[in-house]
Amino acid sequence: MAESNFIDYVKIICRSGRGGRGMAHLHRAKYLPNGGPDGGDGGKGGDIILRGNRNYWTLLHLKYQRHVFAGNGQNGGVNRSTGADGESKIIDVPCGTVAYNAETGEFLCDVMDDGQEVVLLKGGRGGLGNVHFATPTRQAPRFAQPGEPMQELAVTLELKLLADVGLVGFPNAGKSTLLSSVSAAKPKIANYPFTTLEPNLGIVSYRDGKSFVMADIPGIIEGASKGKGLGLRFLRHIERNSLLLFMVPADTDDIKKEYEVLLNELATFNPEMLDKQRVLAITKCDLIDEELKSLLSEHLPEDIPHIFISAATGEGISELKDILWSELNSEENRLAAVKREELVHRNYDRRMLEGDFADWEDEEYEAMDDEEYDFNYDEADWEEE
Question: Is residue 17 domain-shared with residue 147, that is, in the same domain?
Fold first, then answer.
């Protein structure tokens, strides 16, 4: 089977540029025997910059570009000539990308908006030329500053899709069927578990030209927090969602128990997800009659709104859209949105994706050539005018 083009996490090696060294030089002219120092400053090393780009929806373009190196600053020249700055490297990423230190798991930055730029690694400053060190008592300094060294870091980039409603449920709960019926998305649908192997997004049309975005993730099973099934790897895509739509089939033995299992798995992944607005949808209701619906309603959770739907017949779909739109625009959800903007990101839990980079091998790359950098100004051959 062909490998999917949906890549939501990559590991790359980033290296900023080192600063150029300052020049130690004395001015020489035929009729100016005591010209004094005129060594120029070194150029600044290039930065590594993350930039949000709404034209990207995956990190596929970075999967085969695992080394991103900025340019080094040039050395200073004579006649107070400043060296050229090193070229900065801009890494375009989809909106919603989070960067972590791949070695320690420390949170680095979050790129949310189109055009937003974050300096991931700063280039080294250029060294000062000897013209800056001239004093009345030291009129011919024969030394200059070296440039600052570069910075190197292994970075993990994670994409968290931006959507309004996230679908949560066990495999074969009807999540992909619902998404395909309310939007133009075409997720894979089949009668076996784990048909969905990657997240899908769909734009749901509402009244008066209004719409909202719905995200479908692979199914969750009990024990997913311990690595069963597909684990909790894809739950990052609903961390930013405003509303969670829990979906449980009508033919389930205990709907309330299944809902609590899903809730427990979310709490294990990130306790803050329990603060999100929730709606419960009982799917595949074309298999039961009205009397059975009344009996099931008596045993459903009372703390969240619920609705019986059938994507195959269209039953309850319009009412579901009304409930979702009402919850998305409620005052409680707006206050929660303000809190999400001030969200303090947790450090990356590397245990949850322990095997993600098992097949990732660091490619060999050229080491820094520091021979020209280790310049000894004391041993320079100075010519006396």
Answer: yes
